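Q: What residues go here?
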């Protein structure tokens, strides 16, 4: 019953809005929970990376309203798991006006800001084989993304500085289950690429109801680590993987 309710909740959240170059050396190796995002250069280190896998690259992509693939950066992952990727802007097709979600209540400092329609997905691949997805998270499997306390980083582009405070709430009955879904926002975006943290703050279940609350903030906690998750994107080719989104994009970022 719990798994069914979780699947229904995920279906709700997806239906109303879904919600990286050069190889690093062995000196000054970053830790797996460290990320540097400066001047549109994203760098980090994958935890427990299997260096025996040769010629592994990381592909950063987003998509537009038609799910057309938009490549915004690509680069090698070193044998120790280090990577550094120059991120470019997604272009007008990959942007939408912030605050399109009708359930949002709160303040947006600049409602003309254009932001990513989808948060970035990082596919790791060798040749034409997809090894999995690179996710900066506090969980080790995508099966755990809906658990209370689960958190992961999302990477969002904005064409200007903007501050958001408020929430989006949705209640819907699906197949006899009452689903209550709330996202709480307290974050600031700078012009360019930004790292935010999306966290499941609360999950509760009864036989007929499931309630979930999530938060989106600038707080990057130390338990978040870059991980290569082989249970994600494995069935998708790199050039078609924009259709294989598995992590939600916050409602406030999703175009109608």
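A:
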């Amino acid at each position: 019953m719990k798994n069914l309710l979780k699947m229904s909740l995920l279906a709700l959240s997806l239906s109303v809005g879904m919600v990286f170059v050069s190889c690093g050396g062995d000196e000054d190796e970053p830790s797996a929970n460290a990320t540097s995002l400066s001047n549109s250069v994203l760098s980090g280190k994958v935890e427990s990376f299997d260096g025996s896998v040769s010629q592994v690259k990381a592909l950063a992509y987003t998509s537009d309203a038609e799910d057309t693939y938009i490549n915004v950066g690509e680069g090698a992952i070193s044998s120790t798991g280090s990577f550094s990727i120059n991120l470019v802007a997604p272009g007008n097709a990959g942007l939408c006006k912030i605050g399109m979600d009708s359930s949002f209540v709160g303040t947006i400092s600049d409602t003309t800001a254009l932001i990513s329609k989808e948060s970035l997905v990082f596919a790791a691949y060798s040749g034409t084989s997809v090894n999995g997805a690179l996710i900066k998270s506090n969980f080790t499997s995508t099966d755990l993304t809906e658990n209370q306390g689960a958190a992961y980083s999302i990477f969002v582009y904005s064409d200007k500085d903007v501050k958001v405070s408020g929430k989006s709430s949705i209640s819907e009955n699906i197949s006899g289950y009452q689903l209550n879904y709330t996202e709480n926002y307290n974050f600031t975006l700078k012009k360019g690429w930004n790292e935010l943290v999306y966290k499941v703050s609360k999950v509760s279940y009864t036989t007929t109801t499931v309630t979930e609350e999530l938060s989106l903030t600038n707080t990057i906690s130390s338990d978040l680590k870059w991980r290569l998750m082989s249970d994600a994107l494995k069935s998708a080719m790199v050039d078609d993987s924009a259709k294989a989104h598995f992590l939600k994009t916050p409602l406030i970022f999703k175009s109608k």
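A: Context that may help when evaluating the design: The helical segments are 2-16. The CA atoms of residues 66 and 161 lie 27 Å apart.
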